[in-house]
Automatic annotation (TrEMBL):
<comment type="function">
    <text>Required for a late step of 50S ribosomal subunit assembly. Has GTPase activity.</text>
</comment>
<dbReference type="Pfam" id="PF01926">
    <property type="entry name" value="MMR_HSR1"/>
</dbReference>
<dbReference type="GO" id="GO:0006412">
    <property type="term" value="P:translation"/>
</dbReference>
<feature type="domain" description="CP-type G">
    <location>
        <begin position="14"/>
        <end position="178"/>
    </location>
</feature>
<dbReference type="InterPro" id="IPR030378">
    <property type="entry name" value="G_CP_dom"/>
</dbReference>
<dbReference type="InterPro" id="IPR019991">
    <property type="entry name" value="GTP-bd_ribosome_bgen"/>
</dbReference>
<dbReference type="GO" id="GO:0005525">
    <property type="term" value="F:GTP binding"/>
</dbReference>
<dbReference type="InterPro" id="IPR006073">
    <property type="entry name" value="GTP-bd"/>
</dbReference>
<keyword id="KW-0342">GTP-binding</keyword>
<dbReference type="GO" id="GO:0005737">
    <property type="term" value="C:cytoplasm"/>
</dbReference>
<dbReference type="InterPro" id="IPR016478">
    <property type="entry name" value="GTPase_MTG1"/>
</dbReference>
<dbReference type="GO" id="GO:0003924">
    <property type="term" value="F:GTPase activity"/>
</dbReference>
<protein>
    <recommendedName>
        <fullName>Ribosome biogenesis GTPase A</fullName>
    </recommendedName>
</protein>
<keyword id="KW-0963">Cytoplasm</keyword>
<feature type="binding site">
    <location>
        <position position="174"/>
    </location>
    <ligand>
        <name>GTP</name>
    </ligand>
</feature>
<dbReference type="InterPro" id="IPR027417">
    <property type="entry name" value="P-loop_NTPase"/>
</dbReference>
<keyword id="KW-0547">Nucleotide-binding</keyword>
Length: 283
């Protein structure tokens, strides 16, 4: 995230999202498909209150497809319709629009039952930084429409983006704060890019990432870095990757900082395969 979230920022973000929510019929809660639990705002149920909600798992191109399917089931069982999308390439977007429109129908019916003229259903995107809010809005708008800059308080004159004939989307996303307390969650947010490098130690985060990868995708790791057998110790795996890439310091030691940032970058770009870091009921 580009800013530290202090209580004042959080209160302002909450106020702003709640203000914008008054204008819409449906909230699109955008999550990172690789970490659907960790990329949720901790107060989301209170913030959205009774507003109809569509859970959207973005970056599904980077997540394990079978685990994403399990998450979709999990959310559906919890009473939240959910869909997986890839805002980068456009997969799942049509289904997302259809579901949002469906969820907005009762509100529109109620509105018209009061004798008012028909209007389009309205929705907005909410989520923590880096889940892909701007990319999704830009894709839907077909141009650079989303107000970027992850700061609460960026709302200017709102505009609506037409999504088919019945639904429109607020071009300003609701930016909410992530979870802070749990260290495991912080690691997942750092690994996936939701926390900026200035705030975490890449070597520590990389160690955690490699531990996960050794457990979840040892073959991908071994193949990518041509490791004949994975060493038992995580630091040794990292060092072997550094050797493979030739990341040496002047005295001949491995540059562990460079190696760590490189591995994290490779993971974020999907070069280490499609990898989900949490499964329902096992975060
Ligand atoms: P935000 O508004 O919620 O903060 O997120 P934003 O759209 O800025 O997206 C954060 C990062 O995630 C961007 O990468 C963006 O390209 C990437 N992204 C968003 N959606 C998807 C998706 O569905 N699949 C994949 N693979 N990536 C996605 P970045 O490296 O920070 O910037 P850049 O690549 O745009 O330069």
């Amino acid at each position: 995230m580009d800013i530290q979230w202090y209580p004042g920022h959080m209160a302002k973000a909450r106020r702003q999202v709640q203000q914008n929510l008054q204008m819409v019929d449906v909230a699109i809660e955008l999550l990172d498909a690789r970490i659907p639990a960790s990329s949720r705002n901790p107060d989301i149920n209170v913030i959205l209150k009774g507003k109809p909600r569509l859970v959207v798992l973005n970056k599904s191109d980077l997540a394990d497809a079978s685990i994403t399917a399990a998450w979709l089931n999990y959310f559906a069982r919890a009473g939240y319709p959910a869909v997986a999308v890839d805002a980068h390439h456009g997969a799942g977007i049509k289904k997302m629009i259809a579901l949002a429109e469906q969820l907005a129908r009762p509100a529109i019916k109620k509105y018209m039952a009061r004798g008012r003229l028909a209007r389009l259903a309205r929705c907005m995107v909410v989520g923590v930084p880096n889940v892909g809010k701007s990319m999704l809005i830009n894709r839907l708008a077909g141009k650079k429409a989303a107000r970027t800059g992850n700061r609460p308080g960026v709302t200017r004159g709102e505009q609506w983006i037409k999504l088919g004939g019945k639904l429109e989307l607020l071009d300003t996303p609701g930016i909410l704060w992530p979870k802070f307390e749990d260290p495991e969650t912080a690691y997942k947010l750092a690994v996936t890019g939701a926390i900026k490098e200035q705030i975490y130690n890449p070597e520590e985060v990389c160690e955690k990432l490699v531990q996960w990868l050794v457990g979840k995708a040892p073959d991908t790791l071994a193949k990518r870095y041509k490791l004949s057998a994975l060493p038992e110790e995580t630091w040794e795996v990292i060092e072997r990757i550094g050797v493979h890439r030739g990341f040496y310091l002047s005295g001949g030691k491995i540059d562990s900082y460079k190696t760590a940032t490189f591995i994290i970058k490779e993971f974020r770009e999907g070069k280490l395969g499609r990898c989900s870091l949490e499964t329902p009921g096992n975060q």
